[in-house]
Amino acid sequence: MSTRIIDGTKISNEWRSELKTRVGNLKQSGIIPGLAIILVGDNPASRSYVRLKEKACADVGIHSELHHYQSADEEQLVTLIDQLNDSAHIHGILVQLPLPGHIDPANVLGAVSPTKDIDGLHPLSIGRLATAQETFHPCAPLAIANMLQHENIPIAGRHVVIIGKSNLIGKPLGTMLLNRNATVTQCHSDTEDLFSLTRQADILISAAGKAGFIGREAIKSGALVIDAGMNRGEDGGVCGDVIADDVMGRAGLITPVPGGIGPMTITMMLHNTVKSAMRMF
After folding, report:
1. Which family does it belong to (predicted)?
2. Which of 7, 11, 128, 242 is the right S-S partner for 227, CB 3.0 to 4.6 Å?
């Protein structure tokens, strides 16, 4: 069997080209989409990811501003967010996670106005997603859904198995696909006989955060394998949950790491920011 690789970078670039045009049209009408990014501490991975987000904003013409605290308390962050909520020049607010242990992320994320919650993590956004109402969708699940749509992969009636139940990927992705009439099985670290379930999947999505976790014995022939893991391999390089070389020839389709979900996730951040700006136009 020939395994097809989804080029997330190529799809992302197509989206960004369209977003750049939309941003240009907004600017002609006097609207410059603006994104505020809040970063606390010096986590190397977070700083690297924020730099990618800033560059992506610049590439499509979105104004971005970074509010970087070496240290901060919850009250400082909520005060800043209140100011950004009231700013007419800011259309999206992104709190870079994880936050330091002394800060409750629920309180900080809950302070973001739902109208500017481009990460889709406010309780109101989560509730609206759960009830299939219009809202901002979290960026990584939205990236996965749009990549499947780009590849003309039907969702309705398919058995989708998701490994992971995080608030960032697993839970919202399961809800999104259920809203699109997939049959969803949600797995996690306490799931018994996990691979007996993954082998039933028409579409297997792994967000386990474990390098080398999924090999050919974990999938059925012809399955579509979406690798949403982001890990460091033994050589220090970035790798996903899936052993790509091992599933080649058995999977019908696979997303690579890097170059799969990652670029599209940042692009969905841009998309949500532009969407917010257009709502306020």
Report:
1. Belongs to the tetrahydrofolate dehydrogenase/cyclohydrolase family.
2. 242
